[in-house]
Amino acid sequence: MVEAWSPFYYQHHHLELENLLKQHQAVSDAGVVGIPDIIKGELRHAFIRLKDGHVWSDELKCELVSLVEKTYAKDCIPHEFYQVEKMPKTRSGKLSRQQLKTWALDGVQ
To answer: Residue ranges of the AMP-binding enzyme C-terminal domain (predicted)?
Structure first.
């Protein structure tokens, strides 16, 4: 199953949003998952791993929101941002989206 969301008539794959977030100078790695929502259909949750020497702040969150807003529609802005020390990986070294979904559903940061 491929995760994609559709604000109005556009479809953006989670990889597009992850690659965009990684373009920010403070972001080392990013993972985005969609969580079902009764009203909006799906809410995006972004997990951000920062580069050494950078600290999570409201200003950084605003910069990331602005970056997404300039490139895609406002509907693509993640509903929640979580800073993580380490991204969960599968045995093959890929990002474990299932673990990110679990974290998002549990509200774990």
So the answer is: 16-94
| Residue 3 CB contacts under 8 Å (≥ 6 apart), including other chains | 13, 14, 33, 34, 97
List the domain range (segments joined by +) for residue 98.
Answer: 4-104
For the chain, the distance separating the N- and C-terminal CA atoms, rounded to the nearest angstrom, is 26
Q: What is the pTM of this model?
A: 0.84
Residue entry with tokens 């774990």: 108
User: Could you tell me if 104 and 81 are in contact, meaning their C-beta atoms sit under 8 angstroms apart?
Assistant: no
Please count the structural domains in the chain. Answer: 1
Report pLDDT digits (tens) over 20-53: 999 999 999 999 998 888 888 888 999 999 999 9
